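Whether sequence alone determines local backbone shape is best considered at the level of individual chains. When preparing material for the folding task, we compiled for one chain both its residues and its backbone structure tokens. The sequence in question and its structure tokens are set out directly beneath this paragraph.
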Amino acid sequence: MRTMTLKKGGTDFSPGWKRVTISKAKYGDWEGTKYLDIWFENYPESLNARVYAKNGKNGEEFAIGQVFRFANAGISGGLEGADGTTVMKIDDEANNLVGTHVNAYFYKDGDYSRVLKQVAPTVFNNDVENFSENDVTYWKTRAEAYYKDYVVKKTANGYDNPSADALQPPF
């Protein structure tokens, strides 16, 4: 005799934005480049977003940091800079992402669903900054532009694997 658990309703793999809860996060290394994989509640282990570390002109890593920022995870405060900037303090332990929420963009790659490596925040306030609906829309629009300019163009240019977005090196 065996048992079988039946889920009510289906998991939504349709293209577009979804508010998701991060269920697991793990760092890795690909040919010397650090990356962060994130998985989501109610989605299979085979569906994740991989975010490669990228450094800005000032040498500061921003791509993985943006995931923590937009998930409101590990943020312990900020310091005001002399030039009007704020330096955010983030504990970037991967487990700090578990249970947090982001907006994730799902897209089709042939028969498969993929998650874009750029996430967008949800509406929230913390000690350092606030994200309004307008802010969320702004970050979603930026991610969609990346999708159109890079992911879709890979397909149009005849790349073998248009989902290489999830695997692309950080340059």
In short: The beta strands are 16-30, 33-40, 48-52, 75-80, 86-90, 101-109, 112-115, 124-125, 130-131.
